[in-house]
Amino acid sequence: MSLIRLLELPIFGDGRGDLVSIEAGKHIPFDIKRVYCLFNLADHPRGMHSHRQLQQLAFCVHGSCRFILDDGTAREEVVLSRPTQGLLIGNLIWREMHDFSDDCVIMVLASEHYDESDYIRNYDVFLDVVRSENK
Q: Do 110 and 32 meet the contact criterion of CB atoms below 8 Å apart?
């Protein structure tokens, strides 16, 4: 099974422009408790962590970037470059973001409020947690 779970988000358009609508419980499998954006991104990787419980939907509102997802046994990459395509990221998935275009804006919808204790910021600790969950 692939780690890359892409959602095609509904687009509505007419002569005035396009609109993407995302509804919790309809388009994504969780209630949205937090929304945040990343922009003015330097040429440095972002992410480099996992979450114990949190689920996310990430998409590039503008520009593009490359995501790497890792479940402790497999690593997969995907480039996001359209505001109509969202990447579902489940819990216990290591995520990295690379290769940001100069105009990249990433929006993330999260299933939980910010909780530092939910983060796993060390890859070796992440592997230990994944192994203990799979026993």
A: yes
For residues 47 and 40, give the distance between their C-alpha atoms in angstroms, rounded to a whole number. Answer: 15
Q: Does 113 participate in catalysis according to the annotation?
A: no
Summarised one tens digit per residue, pLDDT across range 11-67 is: 999 999 999 988 888 888 899 999 999 999 988 999 999 999 999 999 999 999 999
**28 contacts 59 by C-beta, under 8 angstroms:** no
4: closest CA among 74, 102, 53, 81? Answer: 74
> Which one of 49, 62, 98, 113 is the catalytic residue?
49
Q: pTM of the prediction?
A: 0.92
Structure tokens at 113: 């409020």
